[in-house]
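User: structure tokens for this one?
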Amino acid sequence: MSGYREYLRIPGVARLLFASTFGRLAYAMSSLAIYFQVLSITDSVAVAGLAVGLSGGLGAITAGPRGLIVDRFGQTRPLLGFVPAYTISCLLLAFGAHGAVSAVALSALIGLTAPPINISIRPLWIDIVGLDRVRTAYSVDTAYHNVVMLLGPVIATLVALRLSPTVAIAMVGVSMLIGGSLLTLNPHSRSWVPEPRQHGEQGLLRSPAMRLLAVEGVVLGLAMGFITIGIPSLATLSGQDGLAGPTMAAMGVGAIIGSLWAGAKAKDIAPAHGLRTASILLAVALLPLGFVPIGPWMMAVVLVAWTFFGPAEVFYLEVVDIVRPRGTAVAALGSLWMIEGAAGAVGNAVGGWVAEGISPHLTLALGSLAACISPLVFSIGIRGVLKPAADLPAQVAADRVVEDA
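Assistant:
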């Protein structure tokens, strides 16, 4: 832990983490806030699932183009446009939706206007801490992100059930306005210069490594979509709405533990190998999810599974950074999240119908099965297009310096 204390003293680190807080809190609250608001308007789990799926899906589909905009124009101007638009969209859903059509349409508008908060923050860490500390940066950032993700569902559930869903979705908009403003004023964000594209470098869609990661993004997105709608659906249909937030918050607890471990104890693990191993353990841990009841047992399964998901996130960021084409520091991750999020939206929408029409446990089981495909994709890639990420981090950094020279 002393290493983390020294890391947090690096100029700019704590300030950027604080700047990320409110925007991430808005995203952490958004799914359940939308779910409860649309459910209160329509009294339909299926329609609420569709609204969450559309919001997440449209936010994901437009993540790639937003990343390209940031890679072209920097971070400040895109944030100045997207942040107020997102806030207004949330307030419209809070106070202007009066039926299923308007509720779903405004939920979709929230997704379309989602600001590029996380994909803008990630490339700033290399500028602040350097390549030799980038795994520590990613692990701390991932852990902090998951702290916020832990709090978000709990806050959204408490506010929606104790006050009203209208207040919950309005809080999402206000949080984004605060967080987006803080990031826009951050000096590292304002001075960030897009990475130059190397002559002859492959485009994103022509990169074999990016195509393979896109395939994995589809299966992981489906898995997460089924799971994140399956849990609140099971809680609602079991008459235990209040358990949705704490159960999903267990994801954050597990991911915090796992990501901090990756930064402190995994220094001698190559990114691609760490990613494959973590995804295998995640898939195994998720297998019981479709069979356990909502409550302590499900929280335990989620906690253990996301303890492996945390390191997978850290290793994934490193792998993407190593195999992506130059000049795509923001667009590469944005495009992969676009694919993963679109698949997650399909999982949300289909999972809501399956939960209401058949069983929420079947929705969760589908998520567990989809997660089993990810390690197979990584195992194929590690022998080929992901091989550059199979070296230890120090060697990768040295090779990158040689290439750039």
